[in-house]
Amino acid sequence: MEAFCTIRPAYFADPLKVDFSTTRTRITFPQKLFFCRAKFADSGIDGSFSLKLVSPVLLAAEKEEARAVLTLFLKKQGLSHTVAARTINKSDLFVEHLISRLHSVHKSRYLVGRELTTLEIREALTPYLESLLDEHGVFLVDLVESFPNAPVKEKPVAPVTKSQSSVDLKKLKAISRVSEIGPAGKLPPHILYLLELGMDLDQIKGIARRFPSFAYYSLEGKIKPIVEFLLELGVPKSDIPTILNKRPQLCGISLSENIIPTMSFLEDLGVDKKQWAKVIYRFPALLTYSRQKVKTTIDFLYEMGLSAELIGKVLTRCPNIISYSVEDKLRPTAEYFLSLGVDVAVLLHRSPTLFGLSIEANLKPVTEFFYERGYSMEEVGIMLSRYGALYTFSLAENLIPKWEFFLTMDYSKSELVKFPQYFGYSLEERIKPRYALMTECGVRLLLNQLLSLSAGNFDKALNKKIKKLSAGKDPNISSDDLTSEVEQ
User: Fold this and answer.
1) What are the TM regions of this chain, as residue ranges (predicted)?
2) 389, CA 20 to 30 Å: which among 68, 245, 254, 317?
3) How many Å apart are CA 445 and CA 439, to the nearest integer?
4) Smallest Cα–Cα separation from 282: which of 321, 248, 243?
């Protein structure tokens, strides 16, 4: 037998042309055009092969086997059963191409009337599919569905570099690894262990896609030790899947050399030992940062005037502050707040999450919102100091509609300086109903009394005001009077 195959680059060549009465199969791919030709001395016809040698029953069986090989291959790349099945339903032309390739590879077998086994079919097609995966990466599914035409991408994409292809292939291999069925018909031991913890296979595949190394972590050497350590700290078993999903890198870090020393270092700063379960659940990445990275943030907090005790409380409540760059995020944000006359140390203690916001996208628009409505820089600084969450609210969905309703209320603008927490209450469920009820009763409460009292105390406050009004007393009740009356 004499056979040869040549590869010539071509772009968007003619569609696939398959003529089983000749020896030439022409295939169009997005980037390359493959021309394969074979000559068989024992065929009796130079370079020819006819599918008449293959019975219709056998041909149908081979197509089913090709579909099975393709389905299994797609699932190993991380596709769900539903997505794989949908792809197969659109792959008739690609399956025919696989059969054509199969016949070219094993042409001599058909000429002597010998059928291929299932194993031989898989061994012929799987390497070919792997070569396509290596070449087309994440666009393999598009290639299968649109074959023989080049897959149409909804958005223009930059040319895929060799390094990008390598990354894509690494991710796909990792996904295949976590879903691989072993000789015993079971998933890998570490995957079964994770499933028993409450994770699902799709979640594990997602981790492998984001962090391919996780697929190769050993059960006894990596995953199980960290899980048991977390359980000993008091982390509920139900929280383990969330923690591993957030930071799978935890499993790759040494407990004795990194994690435990880092925890001891943070405990010395005041992080509550009893709160580790909550701290890790909130931000598991805290234990994966280098000691130098942690120390850099701690030094900055000291610089801003926080005591060791307060730093411990900040890290307990907002451990993700460690992830913020000191020079690119924390320091510029602190300087911006200082320009508003705010005590940065107090703000860091009360609202550390503010320091993760964008100055241009989040902070300045809120400041300008209040400037435009007549508030001074000093007043804005007071509002921020009293209620840091004010700067986390959306202008369109929160501040603007609540401000517009505030203008209809019988309060001066200074009330918002005293009680900026107004913007933290629900407009429809709290502000409007309570204001309507107070107005209906013909009495008046201070803004903070209107909104901050519990439902029971709010009713008591209204009843007291109504009685005073009925008795002919001054209807304007002071906060001290209200407090004493509510306590009675």
Assistant:
1) none
2) 245
3) 10
4) 243
Looking at the structure, do residues 363 and 345 belong to the same domain, yes or no? yes
Same domain, 306 and 368: no
Out of 367, 398, 429, a domain closes at: 398
**pTM beyond 0.90:** no
CB of 214 closer than 8 Å to CB of 207? yes
If asked whether residues 218 and 259 sit together in one domain, one would say no
Phi and psi for 4 in degrees, rounded to 5? -150, 160
Both tokens of residue 418?
């005293």
Q: Which domain holds residue 208?
A: 178-248
As a whole number of angstroms, the distance between CA 214 and CA 223 comes to 9
The domain boundary residue, chosen from 192, 216, 248: 248
Mean pLDDT, residues 291-296? 89
Q: What is the pLDDT of residues 76-86, one digit of tens each?
A: 776 667 777 87
Instruction: Count how many domains the chain has.
Output: 4
Q: What is the DSSP letter of 478?
A: -
3-class secondary structure, 32: strand
- Whether 67 maps to a domain, the answer reads yes
% of the chain at pLDDT higher than 70: 77
Which of 5-9, 136-140, 143-147, 267-271 is predicted most confidently? 267-271
Residue 391 is given by DSSP the state G
Per the prediction, the chain carries an average pLDDT of: 80
Mean pLDDT of 164-182: 79
Q: What is the pLDDT of residues 334-345, one digit of tens each?
A: 999 999 999 999
Residue 475 DSSP SS3 = coil
Amino acid at 187: L
Q: Where are the alpha helices (DSSP H) in 90-215?
A: 92-105, 107-111, 118-136, 140-146, 162-178, 189-197, 201-210
What is the layout of strands, in order, in the sheet containing 32-39? Answer: 2-9, 32-39, 24-28, 17-18
> Do 265 and 340 fall within a single domain?
no
